[in-house]
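Milestone 3.1: sequence recovery, worked example.
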């Protein structure tokens, strides 16, 4: 596989940096081709502004979405954004690696998404009608490719459980997994999570490193999160409401958008493992 790893941590000698190097080493050992985008090292420009769209008329009110659409259609996106789009099209798999800061990704990585996921490339794709609302959530430009998150956090795993004070980690990562990665078509693998990293002992790092190596060995076969396809029949169009009777009893919120049958199959596969 061709793999793009986008790394967002300001310190190359951090625990995150060590895990990144282990992931790259294992991926290459498995025969994969790897490209790395180190956002801090490259001093990635994170904010979206007029400078991103040199063809936008100077005296005209700036509308980011429309500017992105026109720039993508006219091939006038900036060179740095074009290079990232080329890497996304090249890659069979995208890995986003970052520390969980304030319950989300670092601003520099969010800015990478906002600038690179251009209108006409990652969104605004396909027919919008009473029968179909675009190629998104399971379809789109990046359909057929895989993606996953590698996330570290200082909090304990219990803190991110169903009854934990931080809320379930799957809910915190849903806007990224579902809203950023699944939206343009990626098959999204379960995230690789490392908790309590501010209190790591040598032994704990060794165990986390071996878990990461194992995940890198299985990225081609790991079952993706079974999100529902928007145009697969589970939603009313154009209201985008989930049709009644498809959810588990008592399910609400983000869990509604995971397919019950696929989730059951995935749970059985985990038990067998």
């Amino acid at each position: 596989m061709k793999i793009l790893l986008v790394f967002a941590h300001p310190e190359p000698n951090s625990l995150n940096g060590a895990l990144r190097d282990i992931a790259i080493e294992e991926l290459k050992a498995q025969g994969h081709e790897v490209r790395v985008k180190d956002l801090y090292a490259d001093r990635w420009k994170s904010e979206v502004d007029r400078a991103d769209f040199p063809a936008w008329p100077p005296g005209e009110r700036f509308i980011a979405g429309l500017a992105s659409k026109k720039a993508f259609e006219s091939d006038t996106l900036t060179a740095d954004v074009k290079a990232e789009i080329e890497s996304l099209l090249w890659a069979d798999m995208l890995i986003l690696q970052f520390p969980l800061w304030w319950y989300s990704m670092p601003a520099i990585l969010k800015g990478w998404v906002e600038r690179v996921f251009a209108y006409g490339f990652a969104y605004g794709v396909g027919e919008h009608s009473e029968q179909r609302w675009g190629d998104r959530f399971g379809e789109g430009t990046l359909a057929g490719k895989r993606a996953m998150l590698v996330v570290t956090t200082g909090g304990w795993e219990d803190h991110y459980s169903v009854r934990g004070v931080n809320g379930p980690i799957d809910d915190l990562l849903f806007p990224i997994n579902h809203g950023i990665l699944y939206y343009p078509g990626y098959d999204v693998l379960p995230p690789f999570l490392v908790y309590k990293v501010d209190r790591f002992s040598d032994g704990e790092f060794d165990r986390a490193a071996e878990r990461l190596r194992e995940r890198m060995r299985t990225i081609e076969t790991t079952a993706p999160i079974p999100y529902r396809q928007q145009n697969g029949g589970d939603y009313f169009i154009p209201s985008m409401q989930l049709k009644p009777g498809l959810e588990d009893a008592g399910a609400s919120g983000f869990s509604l958008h995971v397919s019950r049958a696929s989730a059951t199959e995935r749970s059985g596969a985990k038990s067998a493992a």
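Helices lie at 15-29, 64-74, 79-90, 107-116, 169-182, 202-217, 260-272. The chain is about 35% helix and 10% strand.
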